[in-house]
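Figure S4 source data
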Amino acid sequence: MSESPASRPIVPSTNKVATIKLVLLGESAVGKSSLVIRFVNREYWDNKEPTIGAAFLTQKCQVAGRTIKFEIWDTAGQERFHSLAPMYYRNAQAAVVAYDITKASTLDKAKSWVKELQRQASPGIVIALVGTKLDLAEPAEEGNEDDENTAERQVPEEDAAAYAEEAGLLFAETSAKSSKNVDFVFNEIAKKIPLETQTSQSRLDGRGGARGVHGSVDLMQPSNDLGGGKQCAC
């Protein structure tokens, strides 16, 4: 998304790009791919096909005067791909665990992913619990008393927020369709990761050697730097 020069953080020309490996986890059809496509490409796809294995995407942001490059592994949510997840969250510095606010069972699955990450992922990994499909639960337009959308919510925001606080997670509810809070999530993740961690990781291959393995696919074509030189509004 384009920004006016005045609104962009001033970044010294010698500023090095710090790389953050981030993995996206959650049950199938909660909207993980829609979330990351909105963040990377500023697009919303109504009928996104299920991810097979995992997809790899990148996006650059400017946060607190630093340039951050997210290397994002969007993993498949189907149970048959669960065993591949450790390959993608290995050495990850951050994780987004997504659930659908209109389907209570997806929060239970998200909680199991959080437990697995806290038990097996890198120490100090920054985890964000992210509710998706907020647009389906937002109030109808003013003057319309038949608020059918609100009835679709199954996970109260305060319940998910309380769990996130107890588990030490970042938390936000988002809408890939309207883009609400999408950039906010990645912005907050970047701010939570220590600068020295970013600097050391930028010298490594944050992808964990998993690209192209076990049916991992690239959602975006061509297969070069998918950030395309664009920078998010983080």
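Figure S5 source data
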Amino acid sequence: MSEELRAELEKRLESLNIQTTCVDHPPVFTVEAMMPHLQDVSGAVSKNLFLKDKKKKTLWLVSTRHDRQVNLNELAKKLSVGSGNLRFADEATMLDKLKVGQGCATALALLFDKDCSVTLVLDRDLLEGGHNMVYFHPMTNSATMGIRPQDLLRFLKDTGHEPVLEDFE
């Protein structure tokens, strides 16, 4: 299933004339497990959190640099959600909205959020930090795809997702 979704993603990127690089590796479920496989890449590696707002049931995909700490209470305040109201969304919701399961959350999966019900919160550093490439899973946790920051932004806009930029320093 994930290979078909990856192929669909690659086809969409190709149609936008977006060049990527890819590192295949064993399936990983944490950033810590992934990093040894990415020692030779140049750029910023992302970590992604799929969250929901306790009250409104709003869905959020948070993509930050892998070495950032994400304080959910502080983030909730920045997003005007209210402290203590951000939670991890369940895997069934992630599969329904993004077509990926545990360990595979990625901003690239927004391709499958057809009704744009997921809001992307993007670490400002991924776009403006001077990185030649930023890295995300391509619908599977057995690979990591590099994409230029300006191409990531173009891809997101093409899917109808305008990211909310936040500082996670």
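The chain has one domain: 1-166. Residues 1-166 form a domain with the YbaK protein fold (CATH 3.90.960.10).
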